[in-house]
Specification:
The complex is a heterodimer of chains A (256) and B (175). Chain A is α/β, with parallel strands linked by helices. Chain A has 11 helices and 5 strands. In chain A, 54% of the residues lie in helices and 10% in strands. Chain A is extended, with a radius of gyration of 25 Å. Chain A starts with 10 loop residues before the first helix and ends in a 6-residue tail after the last helix. Chain B is mainly α. Chain B has one domain: Butyryl-CoA Dehydrogenase, subunit A, domain 3 (Up-down Bundle), CATH 1.20.140. Chain B starts with 10 loop residues before the first helix and ends in a 9-residue tail after the last helix. The chains are: A alpha/beta (256), B mainly alpha (175).
């Protein structure tokens, strides 16, 4: 150190002494351990060939083995298999897959709950649900928990791959049997449009009734609206849920 | 059945980094704030610089200097695309220049006053002071930033003179 560089016994000393006190205040105000965890947590699985990564969540080993093999042969990189919801959540944290194929009926934490946690923590992960029933209840519950694609069992490999690819492209592929379970949307131009405030209340109520598997006619009777209005509202609800999911995908919540 | 194989650093590097990070992160935050970054921006800059350094930790000989250079480059990259936020010299003054998040840190009044005085300096002087507070000499600063050592000393001299004035009465005004 040259003479010119020797520390000055004046304002610099005041600044460095003040720095020590400021440092103590900053150390108290910042969660250093959280910052450290953010940096040192495992990286997403490396995909040298740019293959989309998939996590398979399935408790039947024969099906998960078949899926792993088939997806691997179809240009996907299967980064793991989970047999129940909690394991799925943990494996997504570790591997950050592009897509999760989610069985719904799992031992322990079910597929809906796991989907909800995963989409909250990793909004860019696309979840395709493999459902055994072609019911709209699964669709509403699944969309509400953050899933973007639905395939009904039994499904063909082509069908599954097309669904995964569409989900990866930002779409919301829904299996034909589920869509067929919905009444066609009304086309009436003079349908009464509920006011915004009423619509919000009505939307929540109709969603609950749909989840309870009431028919459109029953919901119409229960709410005092026409079948056509409830049918249109059902379509609108699906679009709103999709929009909410899309917004969450593009604006992930801040890290905890 | 495929199982994930998350990448983990070698244990020694991971431990060395964690120890360094715990010890140094508050200093890095203050360094970024003194450059002129707002509190949240300072956090992002420091965190980003550490995250970039982490995978190559064992190859970095002087992490303190390396990461500070990374922070200041990041800061100037950001501000070059945008007008620098003019921070109020008085941290407590309401308005656009106030860094509300920084105000939440429980600094003593003296620290607030000193911090505000540093942030009130012209950018070049502010940077020289930020490095100097963290223990770097003008020669080291000049080397790290590829600047002329005489220019660095000149800026340090001006910054000291300016701070002596603005902080008169706090005990740092002897020559």
């Amino acid at each position: 150190m040259s003479d010119q560089d020797r520390p000055q016994p004046d304002i610099i000393r005041l600044l460095t002494e003040s720095h020590e006190r400021a440092r103590a205040a900053v150390a108290k105000a910042v969660d250093v351990e959280a910052g450290l965890r953010e940096i040192t947590r495992p990286d997403p699985v490396h995909t040298p060939k740019g293959k989309p990564t998939v996590l398979v969540v399935e408790d039947e080993s024969s099906l998960s083995d078949a899926l792993t093999y088939a997806l691997g042969r179809s240009g996907f990189d299967v980064v793991g298999v989970a047999v129940e919801g909690r394991e799925a959540v943990e494996l997504v944290r570790q591997t950050r897959p592009d897509v999760v194929t989610m069985d719904l009926m799992l031992p322990g934490m079910d597929g809906y709950t796991a989907t909800e946690i995963i989409t909250q923590e990793h909004p860019s992960t696309r979840i395709v649900m493999l459902t055994a029933r072609d019911s709209r209840v699964d669709l509403f519950r699944g969309l509400s928990s953050g899933a973007v694609g639905f395939v009904t069992k039994p499904f063909s490999l082509d069908e599954l791959i097309a669904t995964i690819r569409e989900a990866l492209d930002g779409g919301y592929p829904i299996a034909a049997p589920i869509m067929a379970s919905m009444p066609p949307p009304g086309r009436s131009a003079d349908a009464r449009v509920p006011s915004i405030s009423l619509f919000t209340e009505l939307e929540a109520r109709v969603m609950r009734l749909l989840a309870d598997n009431l028919s459109i006619a029953e919901i119409a009777k229960a709410t005092g609206f026409s079948v056509r209005e409830i049918t249109e509202l059902q379509t609108l609800i699906i679009e709103k849920i999709k929009l909410r999911n899309a917004i969450q995908t593009h604006n992930p919540p801040p890290l905890p | 059945m495929t199982r994930p194989l998350p990448r983990l650093p070698a244990d020694d590097d991971g431990e060395a980094f964690a120890g360094w990070y715990r010890r140094e992160f508050p200093d890095l935050l203050l360094f970024a704030c003194r450059l002129g970054a707002r509190w949240q921006e300072a956090f992002d800059l420091a965190q980003e610089a550490c995250a970039k350094a982490y995978p190559r930790w064992s190859e970095i000989g002087n992490p303190g200097a390396y990461i500070r250079v990374s922070i200041r480059n990041g800061y100037y990259r950001r501000t070059s695309h945008d007008h620098e936020v003019v921070l109020s010299p008085d941290l407590a003054e309401p308005g656009n220049g106030t860094d509300a998040a920084l105000l939440e840190v429980e600094f003593h009044d003296q620290e607030r006053r000193i911090f505000a005085a540093v942030r009130g300096l012209p950018p070049v002087q502010r940077e020289v002071i930020a490095w100097t507070i963290d223990g770097y000499t003008p020669t080291e600063i000049a080397e790290l930033l590829d600047k002329n050592p005489t220019a660095v000393r000149g800026n340090l001299h001006k910054a000291r003179a300016s701070l002596r004035k603005s902080l008169a009465g706090l005990g740092g005004d002897s020559v």
